Amino acid sequence: MVEEMQMDLRTLHRYGGDGDDDGHGDGEDEDDVLDLDHIELCSFMEQIKSAVQLVRAALQEKVMRMTTNTRGGGGGGGGDEAFPSGSGHLKSVLESLDPQLKQCALCLAVFPSGKAIKKRLLIHWWIGEGIVRSAAAGKACFQDLLSRGLLQPAMLRPHCHTAHYCRVHPSVRDLLVAAARSFGYFAFDRDGEPTDECLPGTTRRVTLCRTRGSSRHGGGGGEYVTVYNLSQRYVEMDEAWLGEQRGMGTLQLGRWQTSPEHHVEMVRSGGVLGAAAAAACRNLRYLSLRGISLVESLPESIGDLRDLVVLDLRACHNLETLPASMASLGKLEYLDASECYLLDQMPHGVCKLHRLQVLKGFVVASSAGGKKIPPCRLADLAALPLLRKLSVSTGRQLPVAPDDELPRLHGCAALESLSVRWGAAAANAAGGGGGGGGRMDLSLLPRLAKLDLQRVPAEELQEVVHPARGGGLRKLCVRGGRLRAFGDDVTWDVVETLRVRFLERLDCEWRQLRSSFGKLRFVEKRRCPKLSSWRCDAQGIWRREEDDGGDRN
User: Is residue 441 part of a domain?
Assistant: First the structure.
């Protein structure tokens, strides 16, 4: 009976899958999070699940004690002293995990309890170490840890039922620290905090933990599978040491925290990954420089990382160029160069990454000559058959994407999620969309389910994009820009979720909106002063099932 109740709760806890999750567990922008009524519901669910697990574990412990007494044993229990007292039910849950899921759980021991952790970063870590072979497998493990109560959902969003963030409860972390220490998974001090010690033979994972000053990593001999930056602000890697790490799969030098306030700086920008280190680290599958300052370029030796699956360069604000050798990263599935504001083009070799599924931060280069490296154009991305998620920026100096760019996205037949961000020059330009320079025809993108438009330069949405009649577009988000109207006599019959933000000029009556968007189920508005007639609550949210009026009125 208890088992059946627990299975039912696991089914409830597997969120509805209508989120914006790509295969790498990535949702929407990190600033797009709200804790509303979903938090309370999930809290109740977690309490019920924990109670069920506690009852089940208590019954199991009682049976074990009876069995032990029958055998006349007291005896030590084979290592029970490694676990904190009073954690029998949690220990039972951990011991019930299969080897793969247990390794995933032990990775959580290094994170502070209660802090929000991005699901995508966990999955990428697991891919790097080879614990999971694909992003889909990592996502399944994440959901399983949630359902068992070893993870708790965090920073849920009102428009999305999928958990993109999680946190570890203090009692769970105490258990994980004890288990990770006993298995030699990480090095911890007496208080259970991770240390940056890397003594050979004790652990195969190194954590960077110094918040003051810099240190030259690493020390000691031996090979390691992971180097993970937990709190190091100034990073300097020893190239000779890295050159010995032939079995390393995960190299997370950037920040894992969601807030950009956690600053990371590369002490020696030329030492990101030199030729010798890249030649040695051929098994590296996950490399993250996320949020690191003073990285102006990547070395050509990056092309030697032939097994690399994930390359995270998000928010490397000093990054100006990407090397042509990236064309050699034949196994790359995930490339994030978003918030790298000094990038003005993508190397043409990007279109040769035939396994690429997620590409963030693609920069539409200007048509001006003098480019040292031939840029990759949007039309070239049609050569990527697996590309499902794409974010595009028109760059700093490009007012509107040229006519041969945005309209040619129709070649990306597998595209499911698209984000387009016009540069500041476009947002501040006088007039509308610029003579069709940013026009797209969504009827040629049949699999597109989500569209996010930022700093729209047009005054009417139909000047930028046509409604996808008969298509699969379910989610539309418009943030910032000159938009005044969605367009006269235009219907968006398939859109179910509409989110508008920072549109001071947008003027649309509620009745008109409901007529144009006939299948709306969720609406969110923020800082749109002319939309006072919209039937949203105090948080700017409207849900169809909660609307007392019920229909289009």
Answer: no
